[in-house]
Amino acid sequence: MVFRKNKISNPKTQKKMHWYFFENEEKNEEFYVKLLTNDRKYAIIKFGDVSRHAIYEGKGDDFLKILLGGLHQEINTFAPGKTGYEQYRRKQALFGEDMLTFARDHVRCNEGADGLEGCYRVLTAAGVDVVSGGFMSAQPGSIIEQKVLDDFITHIVGVARASMPLDGVVLYMHGAAQSEESDDPEGDIIKAVRAVVGESVPITVGLDLHANVTSEMVKNSNAISLYQKYPHVDILETGERAARLCLGILKGEIKPYMAYVTIPMIVPASAYTTETEPFHSLMQKGHAYVKAGKLLDFSVSQMQPWLDVKDGYSSVVAIGEDKAEAERIAKELAGELYAMRHQFTTDLKDVDEIIAIAESNKSGKPVILNDFADSSNAGSAGDSPEVIERILALESDVRGLMYINDSTFVAACMKAGVGNTVEASLGAEYSKKLYQPVKVKAEVKALYDGVVPFHGLWVDFGRCAVVKIRNTSVVVTTQHRYNGDPCLYRAFGYEPLDFEMVVVKACTSFRAFYGPLTDLIYPASTKGSATSNLLSLPFEKIPKSFYPFSDNDDFVPQVDAWGKTNF
Q1: Is the confidence at residue 198, as pLDDT, over 50?
Q2: Is 419 exposed, middle or buried, given 0-12, 13-18 or 19+ CB atoms closer than 10 A?
Q3: Residue 288 CA from chain centroid, whole number
Q4: Which of 35-39, 168-172, 257-261, 504-508 is predicted least confidently?
Q5: What DSSP string describes 495-545?
Q6: What is the rounded distance in angstroms from the CA atom of residue 429 to the CA atom of residue 407?
Q7: Of all residues in the chain, what percent carry a pLDDT higher than 70?
Q8: How confident is the model at residue 377 (pLDDT cuts 50, 70, 90)?
Q9: Fewer CB within 10 Å, N or C, the chain?
Q10: Has residue 247 got a pLDDT over 70?
Q11: Residue 34 three-state SS
């Protein structure tokens, strides 16, 4: 693409503004540009059907300029290794025009980038000039290398400073990040941006339902919106909520007060969904308050339970124009969430028992062995060999389908070649403190460079091998991701419906995809850094006054912080 500088006038104000018109080098034809106006104090610039954003010099008073960006990463403190630049490059490391193009053209893939797209859709539909602050996202995993966080903050602060004056900021992040030196990277990012844009510019934020919402995040932003569904099927919609709140403040349509109440509890992510009780009724109460006009928005955070941080809580955020009402509702929802803490438990079955169920199953539907403790979506390494070890020990001929992350084993398969047999150790490549590798004899069925089609995208799993061990097909990768979606297996040519037992390494979101295929879902009592037995993990920072480390029937919810009211 090349750009040609031109002048156009706003027909309402007749103010001249310099715009860069997009030109297509291949066709050598200029995109059609049309200037529209509506009844509000800004204009909508449309570049045909191709682009909904524009780059321009200067800014007329009738145009809103909003910074969009964020660092999206969920951390498991107990996962091995570190998350560095390589992990972000394999997923999303988007800056400048690349971020805007991705947000415009992104194919939904049920990941954090959906939220970025939701923000972008709302902002561009309102005629906003969207400034790219950069967006980085990596597979959930181990603690972030400090340089990655420092460099991102330097970048987004630099963009914000160079783009001033800004009318608003929308940040889309996860909320459960941790770096080598910070327990609150998202709070660091929001605070750094606030220092540049000043007190009068609204900042709104989109986060995951499993975010650790901190007082630092709340004090430096005007509104925070979290996913309201688990399984996470409202990611794009959460981005849209965050963007609408920013626009509403800027247009003077709303004057929100954000009440933040912390709750001293963490519970396993495998123990609840928003689709079933008791969590369902709590969320429905929040929705009812919004529908009745008592709140503009609400969020309930069930904090990522494998995040060991000093300042970490589950929480409730209630946003309303009536400050007293927002406070009352936030405290009410927080009290009810804490009261149901004992109900968040996971009914586990032994791996051997699930294998036996699969062997005798005549329903025609696959049995799901839910190895959530090794969930890559919860930051685990995905290298647990427990299930294949039990299949071998039982000499089971169950027709199984499973996944494991082991680059050394893949290398052995690559060396052997398709159609040959590999005798090697499988598993425990990264989580050596949790598991022992298993000696296997495997037939190599297929080899891949790892770049496979996934929901309309090309996803890099690293070099991969598919092997058969007894009667079980095993997809072995060198990059773990997306294992809560049957498309992981379909990408390698395997249909989960064709198997008696399918191993799924995910906590709860997988139910949105596997639920329509089968109701035979059994959480397994396996080991892992995403275990439901939180008392078995070596927490060092999180207060031991938290449930489940201790219980407190005398807990009284209080507003711990208020958001900015710079309207």
Answers
A1: yes
A2: exposed
A3: 26
A4: 35-39
A5: -GGGSSEEEE--SSTTHHHHTTT-S-EEEB---STT-S-GGGS---SS-TT
A6: 8
A7: 88
A8: confident
A9: N
A10: yes
A11: strand
CA nearest to 265, candidates 323, 340, 341: 341
What is the C-alpha separation between 263 and 277, in angstroms, rounded? 19
Amino acid at residue number 74: E
303: exposed, middle or buried (Cβ count in 10 Å: 0-12, 13-18, 19+): buried
Local confidence band at 110 (pLDDT 50, 70, 90 cut-offs): low
* 431, 435, 441, 445: CA torsion to nearest 10: -40
- Contact status, residue 210 vs residue 284, Cβ threshold 8 Å: no
DSSP helix/strand/coil, 313? coil
- pLDDT given for residue 39 in this prediction: 31
Say how far residue 72 (Cα) sits from the centre of its chain. Answer: 7
pLDDT of residue 460: 81
What are the strands of the beta sheet with 65-72, ordered from one edge?
92-94, 129-137, 65-72, 168-172, 203-207, 223-226
Residue 123 Ramachandran class (φ > 0 left, ψ -120 to 50 alpha, else beta): alpha
pLDDT of residue 479: 85
Structure token pair of residue 296 = 């503009």
**Torsion-angle region of 434 (φ positive above 0: left; ψ -120 to 50: alpha; else: beta):** alpha
Closest CA to 269 of 351, 211, 217: 211
Q: pLDDT (tens digit, 9 = 90+) per residue, 6-64?
A: 334 333 333 334 343 333 334 333 333 333 333 323 333 333 333 334 433 334 445 79
How far, CA to CA in Å, does 347 sit from each of 400, 427, 532, 537?
22, 26, 10, 19
Q: 482 near 403, Cβ under 8 Å? A: no
**Percentage of the chain exceeding pLDDT 90:** 80
d(CA 423, CA 440): 6
Beta bridge partners of 349: 524
Question: With contact defined as beta carbons under 8 Å apart, do 563 and 222 qualify?
Answer: yes
Q: For CA atoms 540, 377, 89, 189, give the dihedral sign.
A: negative
The pLDDT of residue 62: 52
The residues, ordered by sequence, that sit 6+ positions from 466 with a Cβ below 8 Å of its Cβ are: 444, 445, 446, 447, 448, 473, 474, 475, 476, 492, 493, 494
**Contact yes or no for 369/525 (Cβ under 8 A):** no
**What would the pLDDT profile of 60-95 be if each residue is shown by its tens digit?**
445 799 999 999 999 999 999 999 999 999 888 999
Considering the entire predicted model, what is its pTM?
0.86
User: Which string of DSSP letters, residue by residue, matches 450-469?
Assistant: SEEEETTEEEE--SEEEEEE
Asked if 209 contacts 226 with a C-beta cutoff of 8 angstroms, the reply is yes
